[in-house]
Amino acid sequence: MIRRLLRSDMAGNLLWLAVSALLATGVWYIAVTSADPIRQRRFNAIPIQFVPSTMAVMTSSAARSANVTLQGSQTIVSSRLASDIVLRADLSRLGPGTHSVPLAVEVTRPDSDSFRRLVSRVEPSQISIELEPRESRDIRIVVELVDAPPIGFRNDEPQPDIDEALVSGAASLVSQVVAVRGQLDLSASRNPLEVDLRLHAIDADGNRVNGVELEPQTASVAVNISRRDDIRQIAVRPNVLLSTLPDGFTLKNQSYEPESLFVSGAPDQLEKISDTLLTAPISLEGREAGFVTSVPVQLPDGELFVMGGDSNITVSIEIIPIVVSRQIDSIEVGHIGLDDAYEVSIVPKTASAIVTGPVVYVDALSLEDIQLVADLDGLTPGVYDLTPTVSITKGDLSEANVSLSPAELNVEITSPETADEGDSAANASADS
Q1: Architecture of the structural domain at 36-124
Q2: Cα separation values, 44 from 41, 49, 125, 332, Å
Q3: Which of 22, 130, 160, 315 is the most exposed place for a label (fewest CB within 10 A)?
Q4: Check: CATH 3.90.1150.10 for 231-321?
Q5: 39: buried, middle or exposed (CB in 10 Å: 19+, 13-18, 0-12)?
Q6: What secondary structure letter does DSSP report for 190?
Q7: CA 99, CA 91: separation in Å to the nearest integer?
Q8: Class of the 323-420 domain?
Q9: Structurally, what CATH architecture does the domain formed by 134-227 represent?
Q10: Helix ranges restricted to H, 190-296
C-alpha cells in the first residue's frame, strides 16, 4: 500500500516537473521572440558557382543565378549581405549529357549558434545543364602580320619559339579551331625584335573561337628587320629664289611638309643621290604677302621614283615689308576750329616727325605728304599746351606710325578786343 502511494506521489511530481519545464520553455521562447522576432529576407540574383566536371565541359545552363530566402532572428538575418551567400552547383561527378543539378547554399559569414538557426530556401532549387565531352588537341601557331615595317625597311618571316599550342574545351568548340593566331604589328619597328604575342583560337573564317582554353596563352616571336637597299629616305628643301623678292620686302619664314621623301630605284643609283633634293624653283616676283604653294621635287634620274607616286611638297612662305624709320623736319603746324577774328600764336611754328613703317611707303614720303593740325574747336582765349593731329596723305601709313618732336605745342589764342586794347595801350605809351 505504501509503495503504491509513493509511486503515485512520484509520478505526480514528475508530471508537474514536466509541465513546469514546458511552461518555462514557452515563456522563454515568447520572451526571446518578442525581443528578437523571426523574420525572412530575400536576396535576388545570387550568382551560381559551378564546380567543374573532370569528364565533361558545361556548354549551356538554364540559369546562372537564383534567389535565396533566409529565415531567422531579425538580428542575424538583417546583418547578412548578398556577398555572404554562396550558391554552388556541383558538376564534378557528372559526365556528358543533360542533368538536373541541385543548388547548395552556404553562408560564408556564420555567427556560431545564431547561424544554425538560419533557414534557407532557393528558387529554383535545381537547374538543368548540358555537358559535352572534353577534348584537347595540339594545333599549329600562325603569326599574322598586322602592319609591315615603315617604308624603307623589310622584315623576315616571324619565328615563334613554339610550333603548336594545346587547345582544350568542349568537343564541338575544339572541332571549329583550325589555327592558333598571334598578331604582330611592325609599323614602328626599324630594328630586329623579340616580342610576346597573345594567342587566340580561330576558325576557318579567321574569327575567334571563344570558350576554349589555350596552353600556353602566349608565344615569344622573333623577327629580323633590316633596311632596304632599293629605297632611300632623302631630305628635301624648297628652292626659293630670294633674288626675286620685290624691293622693300623680306622673307620672314618658310615651312614645308613633308621634310623628306622615300625614293626607290636601283641601289647604285640611290648611292649617287646627294643627301638633300631641291624642289622646282619658287619665284617671289610680285609677292608682297605670305602664300602657300605646292611644288614638285626634282629627281636627278628619270628611273628613280617617289614611293606613293606623289613627289610634291607643300611650302608655306611668309613675306613681310622691310621696316625703316625716317625723320622729316620743318613741318608747318596749322590750326582749325576757330573764327578768323581770333589771333593764334603757335610755338614752335614747325615740328619734326619720325615716321616708322614699310620702306616702300616711308621712302616715298615728302614734306607735303604730312600735315600737322592743332584743333582749337571750343577753346576760348588763353594759353594751351596741345598735341597736334597727324595726317599722312600718301601710302598705307597712319598717325600710329609717327612720333612728333616736340610732342606738344604752346598755343595762345587772343580775341579781337584784347588785341585792340593792347594796341591802344602801346600807342598811349608812345605818345607820352
Answers
A1: Beta Complex (2.170)
A2: 10, 15, 14, 99
A3: 22
A4: no
A5: middle
A6: -
A7: 9
A8: mainly beta
A9: Beta Complex (2.170)
A10: 267-272
